[in-house]
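Subject: for your reference before the review

Hello V.,

The reviewers asked for a structural picture of the protein, and I figured it would be easier to keep everything in one thread rather than splitting it across files. Below is the amino acid sequence we used in the manuscript, unchanged from the supplementary table.
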Amino acid sequence: MIRHGRYLVFWQWRLDGSFTVSIFELGDAPATLALVHAASRPGMRISLTERAWKRVVVARAVVDRLVDGAAPIYGLNTGLGGNVGFRLSRPDIEAFQVQMIRGRCVGVGAPFAEPLARMMLLCRIIGLVQGGSGISPAVLEHMLAMFNAGLTPVIPGRGSIGGGDLGLCAAIGAAVIGEGQIFLNGVAHPAAQALAQVGLAPAVLGPKDALAILNASSITLGHGAAVLAEQAQLLGLGAVAAALADEGYAANPDIFDARLARARPAGGQERAAAMFRGLLAGSYLHDAGAARSIQDALSFRVLSQIYGPAITSLETAIESVETELNAAADNPLVLAEDGLILSTANFHTPAIALAFDQMAIVNCHLATASAYRVIKMMNAALSGLPKYLSPVGGASNGFNSLQKTVAYLHGEIRLKATPGSLDALPVSESVEDHAPQTPLVIRKLEEQMLPLRLLVAIEALVAAQAVDLRRCERLAAATGLLFRAIRCEVPVLVEDRATGPDVDRVCDLMRSKTLLDALVRAAGPDWAIPSFW
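And here is what came back from the structure prediction:
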């Protein structure tokens, strides 16, 4: 057993001397997105600390005491939403738990992939551990057993508006009671059958247990954690591709001088400038006379000014998800120290929605600059290189027609930058008359990433061609690594050929975790983009 960051991690040693993580112990330290990713991988297991179990037991005692009281308590002895005025009799409360889950299984569409749904289940377990839900210890123990046995609820992809993910968390609740479907070893089975295969029976829910499972933003959190990991990857790849474009264009690296960034330290600009200095350290661009101009076009010149806000926006989004992950966001909320259960609106997640909307707008700024760098590298009058980066010349098309693909991708990225958190319809007899549409905003950002990834691949491919044609004598460590990786997959363009497949190959190459990790290491100590994939 050792400490991994702020978590106790139990390691399992193999006979060959290698080891794997066996158990992540949760409950004493705040959870991070890195933990969610690590603990959700196949074969990982989780356990709770003694302090965490105590929180759960103490909160449950409050529920058990108040369930027989005369005062109405939302969701404990009343209906939900527009039915809040309906008072449940004591004998009906247990039966209402199953009714509550069944009536809220409203998710539709293709389900989330098993690895992503597993992250969602873990996020709900982490939320229950905070002690605000008042869940029965036996039900939480059952959910831990499911997770550790490799059981993952099949969760539909659409059906939450961000005021808590009840309609999708209901799939988790259904799996717990043996209804719906469960993934086991990559295959979806009827829930009761999957539970039986690992020796588990469906859980029996007591008062408030269903609402404890349902009234949370666990779908938002799991999806958000996955999307932010990809966003961090894309920011890193985009930065290295832009630095390679600097070398292909023979841009002036003095623009990243620390004194210039310090003179106006706005929006993470200083950190971004330091990162680009690290990305270009050792490059031929620093040789006397290597840079072709004292002042380049803005798409080359404002890299630190746009990557600075991009990095800070990513950090804001990460913070918003991690805050929710570690929160007791239940409604109603058990206040164990005061012996109370009070209604809240802590399930509402506009902070996450706004952060992800902002990230999508940031991506549009990055895409615009990337598109202009690509086009300028092909312009002989601006780059000093052969027209369209074709060494053949004459009627050769070179990379020219890729500009149309760039324009399409930029249009799609721009479309996906439209805020998704601005519209909501009143539901449940207008009781629920505001919603941040957080799951929609996260999905929109995820969908924006494919065209952005393809655009970054085009910039990297075109930059590599420019580097070849300029006969750059010495590339920086990270850009040189990316250049060589591209050339292992795609040869330099001489005669005209289909360049679309080349872009797809580079795009696939840039999904490699091995390459990503190597680029981060090569970039040096000033790498400024969070790496938690």
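For the response letter, the relevant points are probably these. The first helix runs from residue 33 to 39. The chain has two domains: 49-216, 227-329+349-523.

Happy to draft the paragraph if you're swamped.

O.
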